[in-house]
Each structure stands twice: as structure tokens, then as C-alpha cells.
Amino acid sequence: ENSPDLPFVYVRALLADEANQTLWVGHQNGLSAYSNGLWQTYTHKDGLPDAWVNALMLDSAGRLWVGTNSGVAIHESTGWRILTQADGLLGDMVNVILEDRIGGIWLGSYIAPRGGISYLKNDIWQYYTIENGLPHNNITSLIETSDGYLWAGCGLNDRGGAVRFSFDGENWEIDRSLNKNDGLAGEKVRSLFEDLGIIWFGSEYDGL
Questions:
Q1: Which residues contact 176 (CB under 8 A, 6 or more apart)?
Q2: With CB atoms counted within 10 Å of each terminal CB, which end of the chain scores lower, N or C?
Q3: Distance CA 120, CA 104 (A)
Q4: What confidence tens digit (pLDDT) does each residue in 66-106 have?
Q5: How many other C-beta atoms lie within 10 A of the C-beta of residue 128?
Q6: pTM
Q7: Residues 41, 32 contacting (CB under 8 angstroms)
Q8: String of DSSP letters for 2-37
């Protein structure tokens, strides 16, 4: 249904919650949910850390994770739980979220020169930045591929690249880094997608 009252501006994320028959829409003016023919919008007044929503993810426990410009909100039975830099994030701006196969949560920011990836597993934080292998601290995309690796795309304008993480049974470590000299269409990797075992790297300006 269309409504002139819907506050959709700059939609950044869409998520279908099939279990609860809800469509979530993250945008500049909050988080909107469509269920049973009705829309409801949540903002910082309803418990989100910020009305500007960048990323949405459902974890394996069915909890909704919402990445905003001022931290991440986790929807639990008791309401919204907020994680910010004070709780362990590298930076409050959360641009992309992914849960890996062992239940770890990857939170990528887009606020270079700080930025980077904050990784949360069993209430323990681990961090990845340019200091330990990232080509750039602006994180644009995350994907876990069918061969067991995890890839991160990053960059700004004509700088950046992609890195591959491998899991050694205890930790994820960067084991490969790609840039234009390695075959990428452009330095900044804007998006990642896997199709039948083939990984596609979308660049900012230079195609696939």
C-alpha cells in the first residue's frame, strides 16, 4: 500500500522477516515495518540510537540488528539494546552487519580514518583496521562464501580493495588482499556477491 505519510528518504536497507511476516525498511528517517497491512516507524524516540538507519540483519536467534549512524540497536524481548563506541565498537557509525557461521557478528563502519571492522563473539571484541591488514577503514560490504571464507569490501572514491578472512578454528585472520593490480576493476570495492561459487566484486566507478 502507498501512503503520503511514509517517511521514506534515502532507503539504505530492506529485510524480509518471514517468521514474523514483516518487511523492514531502513532509511534516513528511521526504521519502518510493514505487517498485517499496516506501517509503523521507529526512530530515536522509540529507542533507536539514531534515526538514520544504514543496515539490517536477522541473526540466527531471530533478533533484529539495526546499524545506524550512532551505534547498533538489537531488538530483544525486553526492547532495544544499544551498542556504541562506549560498549566496544570501533566507531558508532555502523554501515554493514553480518553474522558468520559460528555466530560471530561483523560490524563494519564507514568513518575513515577511524572506522574498520568490529567483531563480536561470546561478548569478546576483536578489531580489523588498516593497522592489521585492511586496505581502507571504510567498510562497504561483507559476505561469507560457500568455500568457508569471509570477504570484506572497502574504500573511498578511487582507493580501497578487498580482503579475505580465513578461520583457523579459533580466530578469523586476513589471508589475502586484492586491489586493482590483482585484477579488480577498480580500487574501491562497493559490493560483493557470490553466484555458483564465483565471487563478483562491484567497484565504485569501474564496473565489475
A1: 163, 164
A2: N
A3: 6
A4: 999 999 999 998 899 999 999 999 999 999 999 999 999 99
A5: 24
A6: 0.94
A7: yes
A8: --TT----S--EEEEETTTTEEEEEETTEEEEEETT
